[in-house]
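Researcher: I'd like a structural prediction for the single chain below. Treat it as a standalone chain; there are no partners to consider.
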Amino acid sequence: MPGENLSRDEAQERAALLSVDSYDVFLDLRSAVGETEPGGPAGEPRTFRSVTTLRFRCAEPGAASFADLIAPSVTAVSLNGRDLDPGEVFDGSRIRLEDLAAENELVLDAQCAYSRTGEGMHRFVDPEDGEVYLYTQYEPADARRVFANFEQPDLKAPFRFEARAPEGWTVWSNGAGELVDGVWKFAGTKPISTYITAVVAGPYHYVTDSYSRTFDDGTKLEIPLGAMCRKGLAPHFDADDVFLVTKQGLDFFHDHFDYPYPFGKYDQAFVPEYNLGAMENPGLVTFREEYIFRGKVTQTSYEARANVILHEMAHMWFGDLVTMVWWDDLWLKESFADFMGTFANVGATRFTDAWITFANRRKAWAYRADQLPSTHPITADIRDLQDAKLNFDGITYAKGASVLKQLVAYAGQDAFLEGARRYFKRNAYGNTRLGDLLSALEETSGRDMTAWSRSWLQTAGVNSLTPQVILDAEGRVAELAVLQEAPESHPELRPHRAAVGLYRREGGTGPLVRYARAEADVDGPRTIVAELAGAEAPALVLVNDDDLTYCKIRFDEGSLATLRDALGEITDPLARALCWSALWNLTRDAIVPARDFIGLVLRFAGRESDIGVLQMLHAWANSALVNYAAPDWREEGGALLAEGALKELRLAEPGGEHQLAWARFFAVVASGEADLQLLQGLLDGTAKIDGLEVDQELRWAFLEPLAARGAADESVLAAELARDDTASGKRHQVRCLASRPSAAVKAQAWAAVVESDALSNALVEATISGFGQPSRRDLLAPYTAKYFAAIDRVWAERSIQIGMDVIRGLFPSLQDSPETLAATDAWLTAHEDAPPALRRLVLESRDDLARALRGQARDIAAAG
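Model: Treating it as a single chain, here is the predicted structure.
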């Protein structure tokens, strides 16, 4: 309904009229237990009572406005002691407020619905023991599903929560809580935005610790720490490591921000069926419970968890203490948190190589997003909440973080951090726009931030940097230049502070090492790097060495030939990761054929020391095969990948993380009868690979390809679920069930996701994942027309999160033909008036499909 999609103009009008003094919110959560699923009588949603007392001022007495609430029903509404008729003032998403006084009190008593989509108050029933768990998730605008409010980030206020819960439960919120006469009462918060308030309730397993810090002026800070998860995950919960990273992060940010953590306690809740990685609710950060590892994982997983912990912690300052006025400046929190997560990981924890992961993994996300037709400046034009929801993307996060890394190189780290410190102190508990931060950075750096911002924050697209080497008669560098290009659609050439590295092979055939490096201000179409004149002729020129800027790296012909012969010989792991990333971009751009990239992976990935880079190479190689390889070569390419993966699996150190990574990759690419027999043997114990422990998570990884190839039927999967009768096991089983190669199975999966809303968000995701199996594209062919016939209705009827999952996840990308592209174009032409967010999702999928077809054409041409 239109009222749910708050526009920027409406928010600006309301902020000009109203200011909020306080919220008091009472929630009665006792209805979470009891009754039969899925809800109340006749399938109505299960609800809980929510009573909000909202005190606010109006700059124009007598004016009208509205409050936000999405709820099945409202019991009573009172404005300034005057009872209002809920049927007249509540339309399902807004409460009309008329004849406002200078000072106002709104009291609203409602029945709000528990969620199964991860939006609002999510209710989860653990299949392992029947216990019920609740948590809230609001960003950008789902607090209105739990209590009445003014749902926009610039109307901050203190919050005080109370909750009544089932006996034996514990309830947590942003402030410290205690149980008084059967009601959980929580300390009031500092002024914060609605979207970062939080409630977690249930029989969670809870572990405590504490952090203390004495500052230079003698003041002491004590922060109670807590961490929680479902009881079923408690045996796997390594809370000590979570607390270790938490304390390291608090020390790091206190050292660099010069502003003590301002929100009292610091709880971290790992919750089920979570849509995001995590959410920065002050005092009660929520994470997806997959960050609790049920089986053996590589250090990449621990590094990623630490990065997320630190990302959310950085938000306590960037986002919670100082918040953007509107979602246009979402980057003011997300780009900074993404940068600071890696910055702190390297500076404070054991993960000192995290910038390699950033260069290889996070930037790949940014490069893809920045080449879609929906690309946008980092400071985006966010018209409404649907726009905001879709802009939690690779540009806002990873490109923004990359640009901040460039800003640190441009302005200097000390000036950058001092600018941040001034920004916090000037704007604490307030709201800001772009100019507020830039003015602080201009003061501390002495640089012109207006021009920098115009180039980097207010334009879209990614530049390509290519070296141009001219040798003199003696074979030395006469001139080395960097050529900068931009796509026609986004022609901005930006100023780059970049390093250029020259590499040679020791002794002519030995390792590739850097022997010369220079930093330069690359600006315009051609920049001469004068410091490198006279150097020995390089075997490899790496522009953006050390990954200082955000760009697509290109190579001259000599460098590309060196990489084809000796990529694995590069001794520096960051330089090697940058070369891999550049080659992947060349593959996606249909410059390097997919089979050539796969060949490089088969030749050199086994020598990759960085486990995160190796796992990224596995993902890219599989994507190259599925999306960019010539269709008639896929079977051969898949066999080559499976053969190479098995070879490296057997060569890897027994029991090591490289062995585990290769085992998982082998499962992904296994296709032939011998491959499937080996997987089955590893499952039933008739086959062994020295050192490989097949734990429960690896068992499911092996079962999925067996199910997808018709070698594991429903009874096998039921038996495995009996072995692992947990929430995680159920998700795995649902995915494997939907993977089976049967027309009836695909029809059942489609109906479960598209024609019904009975599945929770986690099971929708699992079903979609299993449905789209590239090994049987023929079974998916009938669903192209069905997809385009259904998506308008899905978008209109389902929550935005489920709508996004369905529109993206079921797009017929595996029907990679000009006919599918034409069908997509026909839908876009016929639906020019569709909601912009829906059109954006379809346009992005169309672009991925068109890119895949270009890659396949390149691969076909390479085969001759």
